Amino acid sequence: MCGLEVHHADGEVKLIRPNRNDVWSKGYICPKGTTLGHLHADPDRLRAPLVRNSSGNFVEAGWDDAFERCAELIGKVRSEYGIDAITAYVGNPAAHNYSISRYVGLFMGLAGLPVIYSAGTVDQWPKNVVCQLMYGQAWRIPAPDIERTDFMVVQGANPHASQGSLLAHADVPAALDRVRERGKVVVIDPRRTGTVKHADQWLPVRPGTDALLQLAVVNVLFDEGLVRLGHLGDRLKGVDEVRCIAAELSPERVAGVCGTTPEAVRTLAREFAAADRAAWYARIGTCNQEFGTLASWLPDVICALTGNLDSEGGLMWANPVAVPAAQQDWGSPRGFGRRHSRVRGAPEALGQFPLSCLAEEIDTPGPGQIKALVAICGNPVISAPDAGRLDAALPQLDAMISLDNALNETSRHADVILPGLSALEQPHCDELLWGWATRSAAKWSPPLFPPADDRPHEWEILLRLGATCAGMAPEHTDVAAIDDGYFSNLAALSGADPEAALAATSEPGPDRLYDLSIRTGPWGDRYGENPDGLTLEKLKEHPDGIDLGPMVPRIGEIVLHPDGKVDLAPAHITADIGRLTERLDRPVEPLVLTSRRHLRSNNSWMHNVKVLVSGKDRCTLLIHPEDAAPRGVTDGAVAVVSSSNGTIEVPVEVSDEMMPGVVSLPHGWGHDKPGTRQSVAREHAGVNNNLLAPPDFVDVPSGNAAVNGIPVEVAPA
Ligand SMILES: Nc1nc2c(c(=O)[nH]1)N[C@H]1C(S)=C(S)[C@@H](COP(=O)(O)OP(=O)(O)OC[C@H]3O[C@@H](n4cnc5c(=O)[nH]c(N)nc54)[C@H](O)[C@@H]3O)O[C@H]1N2
Ligand SMILES: Nc1nc2c(c(=O)[nH]1)N[C@H]1C(S)=C(S)[C@@H](COP(=O)(O)OP(=O)(O)OC[C@H]3O[C@@H](n4cnc5c(=O)[nH]c(N)nc54)[C@H](O)[C@@H]3O)O[C@H]1N2
Ligand SMILES: [Mo]
Question: Which domain, by its residues, includes 90?
Answer without folding.
Answer: 46-114+354-426+453-477
